[in-house]
Amino acid sequence: MTTPWLSLPEREPREGGAAGTLVVCFAPTGAHGSTYAGWRGLLPGNTALALVTPPGRGTRVDEEPVTAMTVYADTVAAEIRAVREGRRVVLIGVSLGALLAYETCCRLLDAQVPVARLCVVAGQCPGDFRGDGGEITVEDARAFVAGTGLTDPELLADPEFEEVLLPPVIADLRLAARYDGSRSAVPHVDLRAVWATDDTHVHEVTVRRWADWTGATFTTRSVEGGHYVHQEDPAAVISACLDGLPGTRPSRRSVLGAGATAVAGTLLGLGAAAAGAPRASAAVPGADGGPYDGDPTDPVELAVAMIRQDTSNPGDGAVTEPYARMLQGIFRAAGVATEIVPTPKDGNVHFFARVPGGGAHRKKPLVLLGHSDVVPAIGDTWTKRPFAGDIADGKLYGRGSLDMKGVNAAFVAALLRHVREGAVFDRDIVLWSDCDEEQGPYGVGWFLKEHPGRVEAGAVITEGGWVLDQHDGTAPMIASLTCNDKRSLLLRLETSAYATHTSKPFTGQAVIRLGEVLDHLGDWRAHIRPNALSRLYFAELAEATTDRSLSEAIRRMLDARTEQRRDRAGEETVRLSRTPELHNAMLRTTLAFTSARSGYYPSIVPGTATAEFRAAFLPGADDPGRIVAELRAYIGNRATLTVVGNPGESEQQALDRLRGYLATPDSDHDTDVFRAWRAAVRRTHPGVRATACQFEAVTSAVPFREQNIPVYGMYPFTVDRDMLTRMHGTDEHIGVEALRQGTETVYEMLAGLRTRA
Predict the structure, then answer these.
(1) What CA–CA distance (Å, rounded) separates 215 from 217?
(2) Which of 35, 94, 159, 532 sits at 20 to 30 Å (Cα–Cα) from 549?
(3) Do 702 and 619 contact (CB within 8 A), yes or no?
């Protein structure tokens, strides 16, 4: 009779007739099923534990070890199918067991057996091994046992013990060395990778590479402990592996074993936790909005977690509460006071964290303002998953990675580094994660009106200026902190003809006319009219760039005495720029076409067609009324152009309102906050020029600026043209190392506001 590889030491009673869960555990190198002895009774209710004990280990020590992965995986998969009995299957592998679990998962999926989750703990990836295994020696096995702490050195020195221990270790090392996981297709399975914080054998970066070995959801967790943390703290590893799995609840023993901290996180879903017992932690929570217990000072981990919170704003506001709850957990764990303020829309909230300042003469607070909502990721095809937070080729992809969760991550990580160091600032530092920045009625303006005096800001920092490379892309060239925003006006075009049957088309159809007018408008260019901030920026750019042609064109533009010469030099400046779209928007009024609509029935040629576009204006440059009149003259009688104002507004009222916005003064760039930023740039980007600047878009900090409170904008990380053009577009991304360096700039800026006591 063939000895079974799979044993179920305890058959858990099934609750309420539910199918339950079968957790299959694969042992580390040289070990067998008893390595999971501490797991019994700790699993969630209605969950059965199945242990894999292959030949050559445990009670089967006299049998010949298996060193062929195909034999191993085929055998275990067949036995799982035999005992599954309709239960959901979870595979958990530790160390070498991670490879065994992975290949078994592939076999099960090939046999149409669903796998609810694959969990790999302290394991190397399927692509980490190459060879035939013949090179593995006894000395290699001894080194592995000593390096991973598989047994006490004293026992390893005993020849009789070594004779029993080393053969299965050698067999497993050969099995791993011969394995090439790339020979089969990557499985579509929920994959969770767990790394042990004190594991010197398999590091975090190795565990994170498992992201490339699934076509479905990938998440990571961290657990305090060494390479064999599944034995050191079984309750924490069980929680890390099974957290968020549908249909599971913790057993009483697992709750008690994990301690009160884990109880709060598991039962209540709280991200906050006091220091205490070791616990499983969600270094990168998935889209399910789980708690974040990774390193809060790591901006990349934070940005990934933020991206995975889908806060898409369809136009009337996003659901931001799960995102806010995650932030609340992060700040509470650091001992920072927080507050969540709801809006009239369900699930749409503002989040605040406040680090109090010190000293008898505290200044008014500095507000780090970062919006939580993002534009939708629909309508255009992405090559990366927009809410997965994928990292590839040194880039972090995802909706909001640039606008503006990357900035938010830099703000949070830098601030919490100071908190961790026990810093005391000369003012309160307030982190405000606002909602409805992209669209919706309950943004910053609504909050300040409904809650007057709640945020007494002395200065505000939000999204804005850029760090740009030299023309050859070799090094950062210029950093800017924006001190004013552009403002825009929504305009609508309408063409008309007559409606008729599609069998009788005619020249001059409304849709064709609309296309012709749009094509004509696409050639329209406003005059180059840099305002005071843009002139300051381009003067600095002329000094910063190593491109002599660009520098000369900028100087000709700034020195031009006639409109014709300024336009000609400005066009040349844009053409020579590495970021022409950005620099064009900083020099003139621009038109951006956003939608076109026509038709209502497949057999009717429509009688009307409409399109909408935004005209964006620089403060202190073109008058909106004059531009509207110029556009009407440009298109003539081929279409009707109307101004789309607020409900009930006339065109004149809408234009006057916009003129009022454009008259808002620039924020003063002779303040301690601006100087702290400039000094920070000098420290993190030596030799890079730092300047005030005009922002090419509008931010949610406008209501502060209208109250004459200094507002500054930054994207602190270096960007290129591709990154800029993908903002609000497909495959939005930022550079991983650029994000880390940008966070250093934010950290150094805040360091300039620490008390000198």
Answers:
(1) 7
(2) 532
(3) no
Q: Are the beta carbons of 646 and 661 closer than 8 angstroms?
A: no
Which residues, in sequence order, are CB contacts of 555 under 8 Å at separation 6+? 542
Give yes or no for a contact between 54 and 69, defined as CB atoms under 8 angstroms apart: no
pLDDT over 60 at 708, yes or no: yes
Other beta carbons within 10 angstroms of residue 6's beta carbon come to 19
DSSP-assigned beta bridge partners for residue 281: 222
Q: What is the pLDDT of residue 145?
A: 57
Q: Say what percent of the chain tops pLDDT 90.
A: 63
What local confidence, expressed as pLDDT, does residue 379 receive? Answer: 77
Compute the C-alpha angle 491/492/494, nearest 5°. Answer: 155
pLDDT the model gives residue 490? 96
3-state secondary structure of 289: coil
CA-based nearest residue to 447, from 709, 714, 708, 701: 701
Dump pLDDT digits (tens) for 651-691: 999 999 999 999 999 999 999 999 999 999 999 999 999 99
Among 10-24, 649-663, 683-697, 710-724, the minimum mean pLDDT is found in 10-24
> What letter would DSSP give residue 49?
E
Q: Long-range contact list for 503-512, CB < 8 A, 24+ apart?
A: 505/605, 506/605, 509/605, 510/598, 510/605, 510/606, 510/607, 510/608, 510/609, 511/598, 511/599, 511/605, 511/606, 511/609
Token couple for 592: 């951006």
- Cα 463 to Cα 468: distance, rounded to the nearest angstrom: 15
What is the maximum alpha-carbon separation in the chain? 99
Cα 180 from Cα 78, distance rounded (Å): 21
pTM of the model: 0.64
d(CA 557, CA 583): 13
Could you give the 3-state DSSP secondary structure of residue 389? coil
Backbone angles phi, psi at 350, to 5 degrees: -105, 145
